[in-house]
Structure formats: C-alpha cells, structure tokens
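User: You have something folded?
Assistant:
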Amino acid sequence: MVGRLWHLVMKRMQGSEIRTRRLRLRELTQADARRIAEIGADWDIASMTSRMPYPYSEAAADQWINGIHDKEVVRGIALDGQLIGVTGYLPDEDGQSAEIGYWLGKSYWGQGYATEAAAALIAYCFRRERFSHVTCGHYIDNPASERVIAKLGFTPIGRNRCWCEARNAEVDALRYELKRPQTAWLRFQGPSRAA
C-alpha cells in the first residue's frame, strides 16, 4: 500500500501539507479545537487513543493543540475541507525512526480514510524524513486499527501495556514495525560505488 501511494503523495506535497486522492493532511490551528472536540468526544474514539481524555472538551482540545511538542508532527485529516481526524508521528530520540498514530471521527470509519492517511504519512516519513522504520500500535480491543495496520504491511514486534487517558488505566497493546523499503534506500544512496 505504501509503495503505490508513494509517488502520488510526493507529487502532491506542498510545504507541510500532504495530499492524497481524497484527503488533505494539513497543519492544525487553534480554530480546529472545536471540531477536534466535536468528533473526538466519543468513547469509542477516546478509549482507543493514549492521550485523549473522556469526555473531550473544546478546552482540552485547545490545550492539546497548544501542547504539541516541537519534535512531534501532527496533521489534521481533511476531507472536502472538513476535518475528519488527526494523524502524526513522533521521532525517536535517535532520529532514525518514528512512532505514528491516527484517529478518525466515527462517521468516517470503514471507508479507507485511516489507511489512506496513514499510508501517506508513512511515505512522507520514509521519503522526506528518511526514517529507517516506523512503529505503531493498537490496544488489543481495537480490531479496526489492527486491520489498517495489516493493510499497511506492518510486522508484529511484541506486546506491551500503554496508558489510555480516557480509561485512566494501562491497557494491553500490540506493537508493530514497518521497515523502509530497500528501493527507497537505494534512491537516497545514489548510484552504487562498487566497481
């Protein structure tokens, strides 16, 4: 999936915005707090994210937007100009890899938007950020995210417990990794120096 979207995504990137066939991944603004709170104020969404409280208020969304770490890259997922979710990544300390994440408003589930947005973000991570691999995870009771991760070609690497703010508890989670495609490495390395 990532490979098929790679070329399309790279042609459609403008600054920090990423475009796919149906979506636009754009920077968040304070004006997005109301919409984020509106679509995020659903237990079925909040309980599957690590940092989203429940209930999720506009003030909490505003605070979250203001508190995004300098190294964290967060983009709103827009469909026909309307925000439908959020995706992003946080580079590891070594700068060689990143953890990705995503969530969508419930009325946008089951239409391929999460897969499309995550594939575009992954292509950006490999092509522009040059990460060697990306990681992600999902709580064990989130089969929808498991399906998205499988479609994207991730490999299971383990299980751990992760904090869930909405549940106010640590929850069992499955972890995955996706290595940068070898062909991408060759493009960045240039022609072979071997004689």
Remarks:
- The first helix runs from residue 2 to 11.
